[in-house]
Amino acid sequence: MTLTKATDVLAQLDLSPAEEADPFYLQVGPITLKVLSPEPLRGALVEYFAEALGDGAAQLTVKLLPGQMLGVAPKWVEWAREPGKAGRKDAIFDLNDARLIHKVRTGVTFLQSQTEVLAFGPLMDNVSTVINFINTQVLNICQRGGWQICHAAAVTNGIRTLAIAGLSGGGKSTSILRMMDLEGTRFVTNDRLMVRGGSPVEALGIPKHPRINPGTIVGNPRLHGMLSPARHTELREMAPEALWTLEEKYDLIIEDVYGPNRVQYAAPLTDFWVLNWSRQSNAPTRVTEVALADRPDLLGAIMKSPGPFYQFPDGQFLRNGIAPIPAAYLEALQGVRVKEVSGGIDFDALAEQGRVLFNG
């Protein structure tokens, strides 16, 4: 069967398992999503999104169809990854009125259109992929409303909000969790931050728990309970360079580690730090105010492509290989104090700068 429009895809799928399921709702700042999923996937998602459960009129409905597949796969086109990223991750197939997106490694497929948003395939084996897809819909709605997507983590005390960006593996998760050790701070987001200009500038996180590597856990006594004593000992004996680069993801549940009421997705954005430090430097860690318009290198660490899922208000999709627009970020971040973190990597020194910021 030739696929030319969304209805051709829907004709090959059985929507009833989702449409007959008990819905649940996510509330993220001004965004409300309705999610339709059969069990046991529904239960896993409700448990994961516990901090963001809400109700009310939803702007969008997400339907999940575990185990279903298309009869014949389309001719997928590889989606170009951002500079510095290797390996195949996403592939797309554009229809007249929709886009199919396929996760190459997992086999999960998504249909994105103005009327239907759904995921199908081996969803129970890839719950984290489903979580990312749901969060992507929050990002899409925001971007259609004039927000910019940043590759950043953030915390807030309700008055000041600090976002931290940096290249992948640069330590932003470790840095932001050290700020969570400060009294009165609340978690906003770990990897994707929406920003919209105004007075004040608005920040919005997404309901995704931090996925952290062992180096972050070993370096923070509060997190040591996430590892078995034996594994903790093994990691402590590793060379620092090997520990820093070790990819072994753990989900950090904020409430379990930091207690209740430590999450706040929407906040006024006041400060933005960009990590430009180095493990090879012996210089002291410095946090210096900069004019972001004069530092395209730092702006590049903040900007994030919407990716293959993004559909513009007129129904058109983001084209392959299109980069974010710097001017839109500079406008959105007007009024936010931006600082560069340089010198050697010293999380204790950075945490002390955070203490000054939030207690000032």
From TrEMBL:
Asked whether the keyword Protease is assigned, the reply is no
Q: Which SUPFAM superfamilies match?
A: PEP carboxykinase-like (SSF53795)
Q: Name one GO molecular function term.
A: kinase activity
The entry's keywords: Kinase, Transferase
- NCBIfam families assigned to the protein according to its UniProt record, in alphabetical order: HprK_rel_B
Name of protein: HprK-related kinase B
